[in-house]
Backbone:
């Protein structure tokens, strides 16, 4: 007689295709489906997200499945939950109170965000009870849903929740949900009474989730190590060192159906590892579009990124200025910090035949850059996982990246890309010189491209590791 599948209640603040602001949307939109699609012992995963006002419902088959209230100081807060499906995955959308009153997925006002996500975390747990669907594991993601784990820990005497295990995925440790103490108190959640947490973290959602979780999963093995150090631990490194037996890392995946250079309609030409020469047509299109010299022998470098300090764009811009004795071109796509945008524009102004600074978000162009650029620059100061390097490798664009977080775990230096350690322009420039020299050997370069394209970053690989983690609880 076969065992019944593990039941996983998967909570996230966003999930593609319903709503996507950042990388968490990719994860929550792909991992639950990949888990259910596993051939061997697939878990019964149910996804719960807030019913944000920006979610379009025209093409959804929505059914209201639960109506209840969440106790709050000053008056109970009503909640409604609607169910739909995504490729066979049950998806629940929680509405009511602070979720319905908010016009954004993430508000700049921490009081509004904390009210919304504390309510959501409690409502997601109450939903399981109302449905009579007792999960084996509750899997929360980042601070927005971490309160569910703390609340569940406080409900272990409740027969419905007794013995339910918890997993907490950390996508970015430094976003903690500070300013939530009023909302936590209003919903009946006092500060944790445990000296192992820093005093300032006893009423902050992310530390509470870390404290309550049976397993803590960083989004790469290297990031799991880094968050236990003062440089990356955001003040929680001591606590995480105490919890090191619960901490592990699993690299995120990419959607191989969506990111497929052999079928990508955004590309002027499609290609496979056996038809790499077709990339030349895409490169020519990019060179022509941005007024660069049309010459296949000139290495085309690119950045597709948010322009901020974390991504190290300033490091790359300075490194490029150190390489004016070399032959190269660069396309810089992204938006962000106005000062960094201005620095990118100055580089373009100083080297108009070499550099195109494209200060905008452009999904189609980003695909063309992955398909036509020779190298993708990722000098991140920290990078919990990173998706761009995996997409670039799938498309034959070799990453030149700082060896941090997921970049270190997914790129093999000189085999599938090029890595450097220090976050300095001089060190990056030296690594770029090495990469530019490698580009000069066409046969060796294509061998690296093919090795990069052969890497398996599918969500199935991540799902297998998460399924094993679930079974270990």
Residues:
């Amino acid at each position: 007689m076969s065992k019944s599948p593990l039941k996983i209640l998967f909570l996230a603040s966003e999930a593609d295709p319903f709503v996507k602001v950042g990388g968490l949307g990719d994860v929550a939109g792909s991992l639950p489906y990949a888990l259910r699609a596993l051939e061997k012992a697939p878990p019964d995963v149910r996804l719960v997200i807030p019913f944000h006002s920006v979610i379009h419902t025209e093409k959804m088959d929505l059914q209201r499945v639960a109506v209840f209230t969440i106790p709050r100081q000053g008056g109970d807060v009503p909640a409604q939950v609607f169910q739909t499906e995504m490729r066979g995955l049950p998806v629940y959308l929680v509405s009511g109170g602070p979720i319905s009153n908010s016009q954004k997925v993430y508000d700049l006002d921490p009081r509004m965000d904390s009210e919304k996500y504390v309510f959501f975390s409690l409502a997601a747990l109450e939903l399981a009870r109302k449905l009579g669907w007792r999960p084996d594991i509750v899997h929360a993601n980042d601070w927005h849903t971490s309160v569910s784990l703390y609340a569940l820990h406080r409900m272990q005497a409740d027969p419905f929740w007794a013995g339910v295990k918890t997993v907490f995925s950390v996508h970015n440790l430094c976003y903690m949900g500070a300013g939530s103490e009023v909302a936590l108190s209003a919903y009946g959640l006092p500060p944790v009474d445990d000296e192992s947490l820093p005093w300032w973290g006893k009423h902050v959602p992310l530390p509470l989730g870390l404290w309550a979780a049976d397993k803590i999963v960083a989004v790469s093995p290297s990031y799991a190590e880094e968050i236990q150090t003062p440089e990356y631990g955001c003040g929680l490194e001591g606590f995480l060192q105490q919890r090191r037996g619960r901490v592990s890392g699993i690299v995120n995946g990419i959607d191989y159906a969506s990111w497929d250079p052999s079928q990508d309609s955004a590309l002027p030409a499609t290609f496979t590892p056996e038809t790499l020469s077709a990339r030349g047509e895409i490169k020519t299109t990019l060179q022509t579009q941005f007024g660069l010299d049309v010459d296949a022998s000139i290495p085309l470098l690119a950045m597709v990124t948010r322009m901020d300090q974390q991504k190290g764009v300033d490091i790359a811009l300075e490194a490029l200025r150190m390489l004016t004795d070399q032959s190269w071109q660069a396309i810089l796509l992204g938006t962000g910090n106005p000062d960094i945008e201005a620095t990118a524009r100055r580089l373009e102004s100083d080297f108009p035949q070499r550099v195109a600074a494209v200060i905008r978000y452009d999904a189609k162009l980003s695909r063309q850059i992955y398909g036509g650029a020779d190298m993708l620059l990722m000098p991140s100061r920290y990078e919990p996982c990173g998706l761009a390097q995996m997409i670039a490798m799938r498309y034959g664009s070799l990453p030149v990246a700082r060896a941090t977080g997921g970049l270190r775990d997914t790129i093999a230096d000189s085999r599938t890309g090029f890595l450097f350690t220090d976050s300095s322009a001089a060190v990056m420039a030296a690594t770029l010189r090495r990469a530019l020299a490698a580009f000069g050997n066409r046969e060796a370069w294509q061998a690296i491209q093919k090795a990069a394209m052969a890497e398996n970053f599918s969500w199935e690989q991540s799902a297998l590791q998460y399924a094993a983690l679930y079974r270990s609880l």
Summary: The radius of gyration is 23 Å. The chain has a mean pLDDT of 95. Residues 60 and 329 are 45 Å apart (CA to CA).
